[in-house]
Every structure is written in structure tokens, then in C-alpha cells.
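To the team - zinc ion complex, inputs and output below.
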Amino acid sequence: MTSGDMRYGRCGVCGGGEVYRGEYVAQAGLRQAGTGKFRSKQPLFDAYVCAACGNTQLHIQLDEKMSSHIRQKLDRVPPQQSTG
Ligand SMILES: [Zn+2]
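Output:
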């Protein structure tokens, strides 16, 4: 059983243990679905990539400003039961 969090070095898709860490700089920006801009600031992500299957997980590098911006501007997905 994996948590799916690749920060612990295991791929949540194939279960492999060959995860590499990089940094992803958003070029176009993360934005609310279907509308406007996310601001011109370029969000930085920690990127975790599985070298076996290519699965990639991004974690935005949060600070107080970014957290509150996300809470105000993006659509929240409430926790729910998976149908799979
Ligand atoms: Zn994998």
C-alpha cells in the first residue's frame, strides 16, 4: 500500500522506487478552470518523476501569499469517495 505521495520515494502508479526530484517552473501559470489569469508570478513546483513509468507529481512551493491566493482564486475540490 502506497500513500501515492512521491515525496517518499515511491511511485503511486507503478509502485517503483526510482523517483527523481527536480524543479518545475510554470511558464503559462496555473489558473482557475475556464477563466482569467493566475497572475504573472511564476509558481515554482517541486517535481517528482518516476523514471520507470513517467508518472510525475508536482507540489507547489507554498508560502503564505501563495496559499491564500490559491484559496481565493482556484476552485476547491471537496473530499469525496473514489469511484474506482
Ligand atoms: Zn512509476
